[in-house]
From TrEMBL, chain A:
GO terms for molecular function: phosphoenolpyruvate-glycerone phosphotransferase activity. It catalyses: dihydroxyacetone + phosphoenolpyruvate = dihydroxyacetone phosphate + pyruvate. Component of the dihydroxyacetone kinase complex, which is responsible for the phosphoenolpyruvate (PEP)-dependent phosphorylation of dihydroxyacetone. DhaM serves as the phosphoryl donor. Is phosphorylated by phosphoenolpyruvate in an EI- and HPr-dependent reaction, and a phosphorelay system on histidine residues finally leads to phosphoryl transfer to DhaL and dihydroxyacetone. It comes from Acrocarpospora macrocephala. Gene3D superfamilies: Phosphotransferase system, mannose-type IIA component. This is phosphoenolpyruvate--glycerone phosphotransferase. Keywords: Transferase. GO terms for cellular component: membrane. InterPro entries: DhaM, DhaM_N, PTS_EIIA_man-typ, PTS_EIIA_man-typ_sf. Coiled coil: none annotated.
From TrEMBL, chain B:
SUPFAM superfamilies: DhaL-like (SSF101473). It comes from Acrocarpospora macrocephala. Residues 4-204 form the DhaL domain. PROSITE patterns: DHAL (PS51480). InterPro entries: DhaK_L_YcgS (IPR012737), DhaL_dom (IPR004007), DhaL_dom_sf (IPR036117), Dihydroxyacetone_Kinase (IPR050861). GO terms for molecular function: glycerone kinase activity. Keywords: Kinase, Transferase. GO terms for cellular component: cytosol. This is Dihydroxyacetone kinase subunit L. GO terms for biological process: glycerol catabolic process.
Length: 127, 210
């Protein structure tokens, strides 16, 4: 299955979004949180992101969802410095994108389809 | 400019950032999240330690080590941005043992390109690019005119400082400050201010090592 990594400034935010997505979409899909810095501050850790990718990579690809600022820049820097052919950045809303990605991955879709599902989550209206 | 010059540059940056830490944080408190000074201070402190622990052999490897350290240790957006800038400079310099002004100019150009590719900012967006881009142009012009190295580095510092000051009236279009819209105008951009410190330290490194 396609793995999902949630990258946030906040450790708790990443963990809770992962939990919410798993509650809705099921617990079979590999999903990992990479939030906060190595020493527990608000911010992003490139080491946590790299470790999270390794955790969820089952060989079918991984998509990364970021909240903002350094989360985006850290993820881009990691892939620029160490390109990984099956790992993709999703330009997607953090919460809705995570849920869409997880549900789609759980249905057995390939990494491109999971990426598209995450990115199209921005078009789902709420009102 | 040999390896000792580039190590001195990193040390001068660490000293300047430490001295200006509270000022940078105040600038960031006005339009960001008030961590720029402490993040950079921590980051360049780690750079100083990394260079002391494993002394690099070339100017390029000095900058590569500094860049990797910033990417791993800062935690804020300035880590990947400055880290990419130094790593692009390092790649541009390759194994050259003694860097000419023209080679430094090409390396700074690569730093600017790396920062712009990563952050997608252009001049006028109220970011570090507003200090970096004029400094790159100033050095290119100095190389073309064949001015002395110390004058060239003074021109770089002056252009960066002027670029940073010119961000005050701007409205931010990139980075955390862009969430503030028109309320971001009237404050100097912290990233541009720290970029001016980083580039001014080139000149002080020159005073120290020449």
């Amino acid at each position: 299955m396609v793995g999902i990594v949630l990258i946030s400034h906040s450790s708790q935010l990443a963990v809770e979004v992962a939990e919410l997505a798993a509650q809705i979409g099921g617990r079979d899909v590999p999903i990992a949180a990479a939030g906060g810095t190595d020493d527990g501050r608000l911010g992003t850790s490139i080491t946590k992101v790299a470790d999270a990718i390794a955790t969820v990579d089952q060989g079918d690809g991984v998509i990364l969802l970021m909240d903002l600022g350094s989360a985006v820049l850290t993820a881009k820097t990691l892939l620029d410095e160490h390109p990984r052919p099956r790992v993709f950045l999703a330009d997607a809303p953090f919460v809705e994108g995570a849920i869409s990605a997880l549900v789609t991955s759980g249905g057995g879709a390939d990494v491109k389809a999971v990426l598209t599902a995450a990115e199209e989550a921005r078009h789902i209206g709420k009102l | 400019m040999d390896t000792s010059f580039f190590v001195a540059w990193m040390e001068e940056i660490a000293t300047a950032v430490q001295a200006q830490r509270d000022h940078l944080t105040q600038l960031d408190a006005a339009i960001g999240d008030a961590d720029h000074g402490s993040n950079l201070d921590r980051g360049f402190g780690e750079v100083r330690r990394a260079l002391a622990d494993s002394p690099p052999e070339t100017p390029g490897s000095t900058l590569m080590l500094a860049g990797s350290t910033l990417i791993r240790k800062v935690g804020g957006a300035s880590g990947p941005l400055y880290g990419t800038a130094f790593r692009q400079m390092g790649k541009s310099l390759g194994d050259v043992p003694d860097v000419s002004l023209a080679e430094l100019s090409a390396a700074l150009d690569a730093a600017l390109a790396g920062v712009q590719k990563l952050g997608a900012a252009v001049e006028g967006d109220k970011t570090m690019v507003d200090a970096l881009a004029p400094a790159v142009r100033a050095l290119a012009q100095a190389v073309q005119e064949g001015v002395k190295p110390e004058d060239a580095l003074s021109a770089v510092a002056a252009a960066a400082q002027e670029g940073a000051r010119a961000t005050i009236p701007l409205q931010a279009r990139k980075g955390r400050a862009s969430y503030l819209g028109s309320r971001s105008a009237g404050h100097e951009d912290p990233g541009a201010a720290s970029t001016a410190l980083v580039l001014s330290a080139l000149r002080t490194a020159g005073f120290r090592t020449w």
